Amino acid sequence: MGCALRQGSHLNLIPCIVVVVATGLIQGIIQVPRVVGVSEAVMTALPLGVSNETALAATAVWRVSTFYLPATEGFFASKWLERHGYLQRGRSQAGAG
Questions:
Q1: What is the pTM of this model?
Q2: What is the Cα Rg of the chain in Å?
Q3: Per residue in 30-51, is it b (16+ CB within 10 Å) or e — as a string?
Q4: What confidence tens digit (pLDDT) does each residue in 1-23 have?
Q5: Is-contact 27 40, C-beta < 8 A?
Q6: Taking Cα atoms as reference points, which of 61, 32, 57, 56 lies closest to residue 42?
């Protein structure tokens, strides 16, 4: 929504929630590996009263903030945990006991 506001468009919260829920449902129905492109297509195709450019920009921000940033954060967190001895690389815990 912040991306849309920056472009001069105003969005209501309820339609945004509907789009996110619809995107999740369609991602569950359409079997695409790693659901690449499904959420982008749905979020830009569903009408929210904004231009296509604004919808695409908001979708790009959504994808980065929900997919790429958590993965990057997890990478650095796992490296920190390995360095401090909380994780051991390459060892399976299944046979321990």
A1: 0.60
A2: 19
A3: eeeeebeebbbebbbeeebebe
A4: 555 555 566 667 787 788 888 87
A5: no
A6: 56
